[in-house]
């Protein structure tokens, strides 16, 4: 074996594992609520991914594909074991995609939201 060949093989293995560990969209959890807001899920490697820099851009892109292009992400849940994520990025985080409020629209103040005549 040539000198340095072991080090090169190790470096290649680390590079391949790192490339496979980039965050990516996945299936949503089975208990995803059906309340009208889209939910997006992302698989990631906890030791290699940063939420703001690596995970949230993937989640925002998934929200755009779900029909909410400029969504506000709201954390819903995280799981680590029984999910559809691959071996090298076994953690899954799920977000609600909340649409941004319409500019210029303000919620009326002091108006009862109940139907007229409701007790």
Structure notes:
The chain is of the alpha+beta class and 119 residues long. It has a domain at 20-98. It contains two helices and four strands; from the N terminus they run αββαββ. It has helices at 5-20, 51-65; strands at residues 24-26, 39-44, 72-79, 91-98. The protein has a four-stranded antiparallel beta sheet with strand order 1-2-4-3, covered by helices on one side. The protein is elongated, with a radius of gyration of 21 Å. 20% of the residues are buried. Mean pLDDT is 81; it is low at 115-119.
Uncertain segments are 115-119
Give the overall pLDDT as a whole number.
Answer: 81
**Form type:** elongated
- Counting H and I runs of at least 4 residues, what is the number of helices? 2
């Amino acid at each position: 074996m040539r000198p340095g060949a072991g080090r090169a093989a190790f470096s290649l293995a680390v590079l391949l594992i790192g490339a496979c560990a980039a965050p990516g969209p996945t299936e949503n959890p089975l208990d995803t609520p059906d309340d009208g807001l889209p939910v997006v899920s992302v698989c990631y490697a906890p030791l290699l991914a940063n939420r703001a820099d690596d995970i949230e851009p993937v989640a925002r892109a998934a929200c755009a594909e779900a029909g909410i292009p400029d969504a506000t992400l709201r954390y819903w849940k995280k799981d680590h074991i029984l999910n559809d994520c691959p071996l090298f990025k076994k953690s899954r985080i799920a977000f609600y995609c909340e649409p941004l409020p319409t500019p210029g629209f303000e919620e009326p103040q002091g108006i009862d939201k109940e139907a007229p005549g409701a007790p």
